[in-house]
Amino acid sequence: MQASKVSRRLKESTAPQVNEYIYRPRLEGFASGFANLGNVNKAHILMLAEQGLIRGDHASVLAKGVLDMEQAGPDAVELDPSREDAYFNYEAHLIEQIGADIGGRLHTGRSRNDILATLDRLRCRDLLMDLIDELATVRATALDCAKRYAEVVMPGYTHLQPAQPITYGYYLSAVEQALERDSKRLTQTLESMNQCPLGAAAFAGTPFDIDRARTAELLGFDGYLDNALDAIGSRDFLLESLSHLSNLAVFWSRVAQDYFVWSTHEFNLIDFPDSVAATSSIMPQKKNPTVLEYLKGRSGHIVGLLMGASVTIKGTNFSHTGDGNREGTRGFWEAAEESLRCLKLLDLVLRTATPNSDLAARRAGEDFSTATGLADLMVREVDLSFREAHHVVGGVVRMAMDQGLPANQITTRMIDTCALEQLGHALHLPEQKVRDCLDPASNVQGRSSAGGPSLGSLMPSLARASKRLDAERAANQQRRERMSAADLNLQALTRAQAGL
Fold first, then answer.
1. Cα dist. 168→90, 289, 323, 429, 452 in Å?
2. For 113-148+167-355+461-488, CATH number?
């Protein structure tokens, strides 16, 4: 019987079922991870040569071999699942090209464990930067639309009941503010996880005099993880990132739910172009909110991925394990790619949604969402306690409803009648002030406290948000430039080592 292709400890070849169901699926991402694996190898070769752990001529052959593989691309590597994973296939191809003696020296002072841990951080780092950039795009769209619709009055809801008038721009400003926190959470994780595990070896370091700070620098990390066991055994940065994406997905689902309700025939507050809708196979009148349903459905899937990853990892030992460091991390890669797609769709929703301005303003004027403004007027004009004013206005609303009148047809006579019943005296409020506080546009502009929907509050808030967004975009661009500079430096040093 043929022995294992990767170990003389194993005297039997890998079972076909293991190859088919475990190892072959692991090789499906070989092409996408090929560049990062090459960079890890370049950094390790340079460090070994600088530390005198391999001869200079050996390092040159290794460096040229890695560069030649890079030039040929991942398709040139024959993938054999019986070699278990990407690294062993990469190494086997390199040895085939430059020989076992020199090719076998690449693995001096390291383990597949620290290679995998480093590859996970490199891949996660790239995805986090992509997510932060995509969030910035959505936030910019929300801010642009918030400025455009800053004076489009609509009902605001609590418990899905008309509550107080707001503007559509004010709603979008709130969406952007929440997304800003999602972006900050991802940024904090990105900054804390940019530490290099390379050199931790299997989990207990190595007797070779390696320079971990050097490989960390060459790969664009801010430093290295001090404890080798933690460097190998922990994938908390992936769980942390997945948790942030779960929070993000829950939020975008709530936004999608708002639009889902507002775009119904019954509400009719928001309209979408036909290009983002679907129809029915049987009911020709249908215009179905396909994008909104996708966003809501995918959010549940991402929350499920977090739960699946957490449950998988919780039962593993604090060291390197296949279930903890491979199976337990799969959910993040899927969630990150799904989140990137959903953020593009959320941006589409915000860009293409159009408020039905006239209907929204009319609804806000008729649906009693201005009632709080009337109570506030009583507090200001006749020095009622708010609770007394609340009772009076409650009676006025009840009277109007019983008479089938909308809010904007409430009169001072109705107010005085209810005040006599509740307080024993009339209020004699100025007619024009009553009209103003029952007008939804005036009601909105009267809410000028910090964080309110009036133009005096909203526009400065949007300006501050735009300034913060610009700074965050610039910071993420600077990160990308630092990573790119590290890649260019690594490539130049490797070419010099190879004598090219």
1. 55, 19, 47, 31, 13
2. 1.20.200.10
